[in-house]
Amino acid sequence: MNALTYSCLLSIVAVLLHFSCGTTQAKNPPLGTKAAKYAKSHPTKPWHTLGKAPKKLSQEQLDEQCKLLISRLDLTLPGMSKVKDTAQNKNWQAAASAYIELLKREATKYHNGQPSQIKLRSIGNPDKYDMDMAAAALENKFISQRSYGPLEVPADLPWTYNPTNDMEWVWQLNRMYFWLHMAKAYQKTNDQRLVKKWVETMRDWVSEADTNRRELWRTIECGERGRRWPFSYYSFIHSPNIKLEDHVVFLNAYYEHIPFLMPWDRSIHGLRVLNWGLILNDGVMTALEAFPYFKDAQMWTDVAAEVFEQRMKKEVSPDGSHCELTYGYHFGVTNEFTFAKQRLEKLGYTMFPGYWKTAEHMHDYVLFATMPDGQRPMIGHTTFAHVNSLMNNGANLFNRQDMRYIGTRGEKGEKPDYLDAAMPDGGFYIMRSKWIDDQDKDGMYMLMDLTHFWGGGHSNYDAQNIILYGNGRTLLDDTGIHTYVPPDSNIGKSTRQHSTVVVDGKNQNKKGSVLDFFARKKNVSFIDGYQDGYKDVRHRRQVLFVRPDQHSDGYFIVVDRLTGKGTHTLEQYWHLFPIKETLLLDGHQATTQEKDGLGNLMIRALETKNVEMDQVKSFLTYEYVKLIDRPAIRFSSKTKLPATFVTLLKPFKGEAAPKIETSCVIDDKDMVLVEVKVGSVVDTVLVGKEPTKIEGKQLWYAGLMRKVDGKSEEVCVFQDRSEHRMGVKAHGWD
User: Fold this and answer.
1) What whole-number distance in Å separates Cα of residue 642 and Cα of residue 235?
2) Which of 99, 398, 622, 650 has its CA at 20 to 30 Å from residue 209's CA atom?
3) CB of 393 closer than 8 Å to CB of 701
4) What would you measure as the largest C-alpha separation in the chain, in angstroms?
5) Nearest 5°: phi and psi at 712?
6) Which residue stretches of 174-296 are H helix?
7) What CA–CA distance (Å, rounded) separates 580 from 582?
8) Angstrom distances, CA of residue 180 to CA of 131, 140, 184, 187
């Protein structure tokens, strides 16, 4: 099997894994009313340009391409009289030239900020990265998947060439990201070499773009070309180095993309829903914004609006969670839905009532989970990024001063009047001590992953995983995007790569988790949820958060209860941050000792019977494929069920770990009692399997009793599940 065949095989496997969602959201949806209507009158036709137009046209071929282009235009529109008159005389080249001159006039108005038939957004000014990528393209070094940087492609431009072992590079090469960098650089430099390279690569690609070639024609690549190509064309349109045949071949090739973008098309590989489907639909809108003189352009508006409304209703829950359940992709689809409304309204279309409120909730979904340092949590396939831009945009769109507060890092706006938050449809639950921790570096934050359904190929086997922030650092983090390519991609998605419990060395199944309880009272938050992630085994995780105050620097007690049948090997993992200094292991305790003045973490097993601790290798990726080593702590036990892990997570600032005395007892009713003593402050934490009467009197489910200098200072008790949702912000819980 040669390398290309093997890569193609991997590509098929990767796409199948990507869409193995197990949910109705991942199926191609039925056509909407408007799409079904238009589908009947627009059968698929053979293409005459894609994969057929050679890199150099004869006069006869040029005449045919010009005639083809004119046949695709609406000659009745204002401004098209010269094109129509010339076409009636069958002077196809002259008619095509007249149309291109019309586009040039509209492009001049568009670039000058004057009213124009071209409704594209501005591509903005070039930055250093744009200039660098444009310069690399002149040397046949093209940017594809960004993490690999620009890589050299042979002079004959084989569009399936793969200098990596990752088919993602081939696919993204065929999105032509480098064209946009070249276009932005050209607007600054007027360097005609950029135009010539654009013509060279465009004509070569079109000549090879047989729609049966899967490497070139996944749905997402088609959508990316649909929404990107016009920006480069209109940047270069006035250059004398674009000949008539180049204009005509490009415009015909672009037009032939449009049917593939329509929801009724099934002729190219890949689904038409989720983030892929929104990218396709973005291409439909861009086609109308860029080339309103094509026939059926108004139909494109109707179909695009219908699809966005359909996908909003189907894929976004009332709490704002998108069904793929990953913050990286949530950013993308939030922008797609938001900008779609604005763009469609400029084209005269009004979205359904409730669309804008759902878009606002999609921004809340980010707000609620924002970490104290402004990061988004790296849940599922998510890379490192800050939320500032999305929050500032949400503040402007929805007049939300709490979003402005987060987006400006507290310089403007109003601080949210709550701390804990929930996404009850998606299944992410957040406890925090403060919203912004840029100065004092004393904040704490925990996200618990109790997603209630499988989110698809961008999700991980990570039920009840924890992301923990403390004192200026993410202490326990998710994996990020390792790679999309199996088998390596399976490692990053595995249960053992997350801070949760693994049973018998296997991955969890795809069953959703269940939330039993989440509430905040006084200075304490408590969450309780479970997943039936293994045959005959239930993993229940309970976390009690004692917030920092005048008596305590704050900590978390984690209780993992494993119930079911038989004897099993249980492994509780805690995946730390990349450590530069020492990780101190002592009995059943692990302590990081970084010397940079930011947060460290003490992890202590409090129930140690038949439990062993060791350090294992782990990794994370802040950028695609760029692995960073990190350690993980594993507590393991081979035991007959039921079994319980009880763990203290103690973030602290500076390298000197606090002196903490602890003890743990599990009584005959499975009530976990933990004593935490720091100096003269003694906390007693109780976490029950069920609400239980203590000493036959008061009902306790979970809570905290505190003594300072021997005197009782605080009692915070969650008595039963009737207090569920107390003190937590969530859409649908009001």
Assistant:
1) 67
2) 99
3) no
4) 102
5) -70, 125
6) 177-189, 192-208, 219-236, 244-261, 274-290
7) 7
8) 11, 15, 6, 11
d(CA 42, CA 118): 25
User: Contact at 8 Å (CB) between 477 and 382?
Assistant: no
Whole-angstrom distance, CA of residue 41 vs CA of residue 44: 10
Token pair 């005459």 is found at 48
Secondary structure string (H, E, C) spanning 576-604 = CCCCCCCEEEECCEEEECCCCCCEEEEEE
DSSP label at residue 271: -
pTM of this structure: 0.93
User: 300 Cβ partners below 8 Å, 6+ apart?
Assistant: 258, 284, 285, 287, 288
660-670 pLDDT, tens digit each: 999 999 998 99
> For 281, phi and psi rounded to 5 degrees?
-70, -30
Q: Which two tokens stand for residue 237?
A: 């349109």
Distance CA(510)–CA(610), nearest Å, equals 29
Separation between Cα atoms, residue 266 and residue 263, nearest integer Å: 8
d(CA 446, CA 477): 10
6-15 residue pLDDT tens:
444 444 444 4
Task: Give which of 574, 650, 560, 647 is closest to 616, Cα–Cα.
Answer: 574
pLDDT digits (tens, 9 = 90+) for 69-123: 999 999 999 999 999 999 999 999 999 999 999 999 999 999 999 999 999 999 9
Identity of the amino acid at 323: C
Of the candidates 455, 476, 485, 450, the one whose C-alpha atom is nearest the C-alpha of residue 620 is: 476
Q: Are 234 and 107 in contact, with CB atoms under 8 Å apart?
A: yes
Q: Is 147 exposed, middle or buried (0-12, 13-18, 19+ CB in 10 A)?
A: middle
Quickly tell me which residue has 């239980």 as its tokens.
692
CB 180 within 8 A of CB 127: no
- Under 8 Å between Cβ of 721 and 701: yes
Task: Please compute Rg for the chain using Cα positions.
Answer: 29
* Rounded distance between C-alpha atoms, residue 506 and residue 493, angstroms: 12
Neighbours of 301 (CB within 10 A): 22
- 396 token code pair: 């402007």
Residue 367: C-alpha distances to residues 104, 269, 504, 613 (Å): 43, 35, 37, 37
The distance from CA 354 to its chain's CA centroid, rounded to whole angstroms, is: 23
- CA distances from residue 513 to 87, 352, 457, 461, 541 in whole angstroms, order as listed: 64, 32, 18, 11, 11
State the Cα–Cα distance between residues 614 and 113, nearest whole angstrom.
64
Give pLDDT tens digits for 305-363. 999 999 999 999 999 999 999 999 999 999 999 999 999 988 888 999 899 999 999 99
Report CA-CA distances (Å) from 24 to 20, 44, 125, 334.
11, 27, 42, 20
Strand partners for 707: 682, 712
Q: What gap in Å lies between CA 213 and CA 51, rounded to an integer? A: 10
For the chain, domains (ranges, CATH) are: 3-310 (1.50.10.100), 416-658 (2.70.98.70)
Could you tell me if 236 and 251 are in contact, meaning their C-beta atoms sit under 8 angstroms apart?
Answer: no
By three-state DSSP, how is residue 377 classified? coil
